Amino acid sequence: MCFVAVVGPEIKKGVQWSKVASRGDGSVEAEVLCRAEGIPPVSFSWDKNNVPMDFENPRYAERTVRDGSFSTSTVVVLNVSALLDYALFTCHASNALGEDSLQIQLVSTSVAGNI
Fold first, then answer.
1. Could you give the CA distance from residue 75 to residue 32 in angstroms, rounded to a whole number?
2. How many beta carbons lie within 10 A of that of residue 34, not counting itself?
3. What value does the mean pLDDT of the chain take?
4. How far apart are CA 18 and CA 65, in angstroms?
5. Which residue, of 42, 45, 49, 52, has the greatest Cβ tally within 10 A?
6. Does the CA dihedral 6-11-13-16 come out positive or negative?
């Protein structure tokens, strides 16, 4: 007899997962990462400031990499703009057993006084 474990999605959480810093002068990319475990494999969706992200927009790209029961979704923000992209991103991971989510803040690397 063969048993297969099933696990609802569980996103890795903690301070190191909840903030990403980047310059907002349009010269760099930022990567917003979300790592989750689940069996069956998880699917990801993303919101930016509580609005579903449109990956048809060429400024944003999403890629998912699977490694066993773990999956990592990365949102790449091209030419980061302080005005457009310093925002709250929400990662949603789901499978047939449920859903989990994590909010990730994209913030400035600028130091007050050096601007």
1. 5
2. 27
3. 91
4. 20
5. 42
6. positive
| DSSP secondary structure letters along 37-68 | EEESPPEEEEEETTEE--TTSTTEEEEEEEET
The pTM of this model reads 0.89
CATH of the domain at 95: 2.60.40.10
Q: What's the rounded Cα separation, in Å, for the pair 35 and 17?
A: 9
Chain segment 9-19, per-residue pLDDT in tens: 999 999 889 99
In a 3-state reduction of DSSP, which class is residue 6? coil
Q: With contact defined as beta carbons under 8 Å apart, do 51 and 60 qualify?
A: no
Is 83 contained in some domain? yes
Any domain includes 86: yes
> What pLDDT, in 10s, does the model give residues 41-84?
999 999 999 999 999 999 999 999 999 999 999 999 999 999 99
Number of domains in the chain: 1
What whole-number distance in Å separates Cα of residue 70 and Cα of residue 49?
26
At residue 82, φ and ψ (nearest 5 deg) are -55, -40
